[in-house]
Design goal:
This protein is α/β, with parallel strands linked by helices. It is built from 4 helices and 10 strands, in the order βααβββββαβαβββ. A 7-stranded mixed sheet has the order 2-3-6-7-10-9-8, with helices on both faces. A 3-stranded mixed sheet has the order 1-4-5, with no helix packed on it. α1 packs across α2. It is globular and about 50 Å long. The termini are far apart.
């Protein structure tokens, strides 16, 4: 094979270069993802689906296509169901990783085999089931599948201080879910160990024409981990 040939001058299979990025790169990456959500949802070629796994796979394909043809973002690739770097038995719904380069941010090098950004995806509402907790975007009393819960416990993104969550709003509006999620977190504060009103989401912007809302939250974590900041992107699918 060409890639295995010692005479191949192109050195197929090696990384191209080391790219230095500023500390703000993580937030710029999240802005890129948020900006693409309405285009992905409204694409005439996208099959209309409701399942979380299929939606996330569709979004991953869209982000890869756009990044590949966008100057500055062609150094990225997106993957679904990737193992968490520290908790390898747990899968992260969607991640961003380097593609063909090594990206260095504040002295830390990230190769194509490492996660730049962990992203959890949830339907709003979740499917109805006796085994599911309607508050699953935040936490679950049945398991450790709650979205914010996973980040707070360090089950997802333990080696990161910035992550994201995407909410596929399939009923109601982002304004309705803003109230509902705030009620869930407020009820947990003081009643569940580790939860406080500091875990509440703060609205950054709501675009009614794009049917997209962006929130920010900050969460204390267990086991000596530093706080993690989450950006939340809620996109109305209906």
């Amino acid at each position: 094979m060409l890639a295995n040939s010692p005479d191949n001058p192109a050195q197929v299979g090696t990384l191209g270069r080391d790219v230095q990025k500023p500390a703000t790169f993580g937030n710029e990456l999240l802005d890129f993802i948020a900006g693409e959500l309405p285009y992905w949802r409204d694409s005439p070629d996208r099959p209309r689906e409701t399942g979380e796994t299929i939606l996330t796979s569709q979004l991953c394909a869209h982000l890869n296509s756009v990044a590949r043809h966008s100057a500055g973002w062609d150094i990225l690739q997106f993957k679904v169901e990737e193992a968490d770097e520290q908790n390898k038995g747990r899968k992260i719904d969607l991640i961003a990783a380097p593609c063909g380069v090594t990206i260095t941010i504040e002295g830390r090098r990230h190769t194509q085999f490492e996660t730049l950004m962990p992203i959890e995806c949830k339907r709003l509402p979740i499917p109805t089931s006796k085994e599911r907790d309607e508050r699953e975007y935040v936490m679950s009393q049945h398991s450790s599948t709650g979205g914010i819960q996973r980040f707070k416990a360090g089950h997802h993104g333990a080696v990161h201080t910035l992550g994201a969550m995407i909410g596929y709003v399939q009923e109601g509006t982002t304004a309705v879910w803003d109230i509902r999620v705030a009620e869930w977190i407020t009820a947990l504060a003081g009643n569940e160990l580790g939860w406080t009103v500091k875990d509440l989401l703060q609205l950054e912007r709501r675009d009614t024409s794009l049917r997209l809302a962006v929130f920010r939250s900050s969460h204390e974590r267990q086991n000596g981990l530093s706080e993690i900041e989450l950006r939340h992107f809620w996109i109305e699918m209906n």
